[in-house]
Amino acid sequence: MTRNRWFAVVVSLLILICSCLILNPLVGCCSAENTAYTRLTVDEAEKLVQDWVKKNRDRCYWHNQPKLKELTTEDIWQQLHVQVFKLKDHTESISEIDAYLVKNGKVYPMCTGFGGHGLTDMCVCDIDKDSKDELVYIYSWGSGIHRSLVCAYRFGKTDPFNISLAFSITNVDIKLEKRDKNKVDLWTADGKFRFGELIYQQQAGKQSLSIICDATLPKELKNCIWNSGSSLH
């Protein structure tokens, strides 16, 4: 083998060694990131929720060992890397949480469900138009008055932050309909009437959701909009 060929072989080996040294840390980073987004089983989520209940609620009003079912859609997991779990049975008290969001091993309450259906609908949407998706969802409850409320979880570098509709819709069940990545409409659950477009607002440092009502919304449905706020504390 000539001197030039030997030189070419040595250079190729050096390039290969350098490439391995550079790529190995990157592969490690990717693996660590994927590990952080490992999905929990329902049993694992139940254990986390049980621990959360013991630390945050008066246990005499709660299931000590709540049984859950997972409602996470593929869109929610792929876009937000969070999971959503709901009680299998009905809530037993007004203060009891019906559904939970789990992110990176931490539990966040979503809604109550006493006297209503609890969590009923969800979608992923960049409702605040900051190029980061939110989880928008609807739940209903009602002790005496049936109320449907809309909330959203925003995700940043810190813990997820919950914002809610400044009012509830009484005696009517509603659903979400996503029009595009930034726009979500509220409809009656039977799909017959459009309440309007859901919008994000921030005033004086306070965040909230509101609705631009449809001009054709019947008066009897407009009268269902009640400024009661959210029941989730």
Query: What's the order of the H and E elements?
Result: HHEHEEEEEEEEEEEEHE
User: Number of DSSP strands?
Assistant: 14
Q: Count every helix, treating DSSP H or I runs of 4 or more residues as helices.
A: 4
Q: Could you give a short account of the major beta sheet? A: 6 strands, antiparallel
Q: Residue ranges: pLDDT <50 for 5 or more in a row?
A: 20-35, 228-233
Mean pLDDT: 82
Query: Span from first to last CA?
Result: 79 Å
Q: What overall form do the CA principal axes indicate?
A: globular
Would you tell me the structural class of the helices and strands?
A: alpha+beta
Rg over C-alpha atoms, rounded to the nearest angstrom = 24 Å
Approximate strand percentage: 35-45%
Notes on the protein architecture:
Strand 3 (97-103) and strand 4 (106-112) form a beta hairpin. The chain is an alpha+beta fold and 233 residues long. The termini are far apart. It has helices spanning 3-36, 42-56, 74-80, 219-222, and strands spanning 68-70, 83-87, 97-103, 106-112, 118-125, 134-141, 147-154, 161-164, 168-170, 174-180, 183-188, 194-203, 206-213, 225-226.
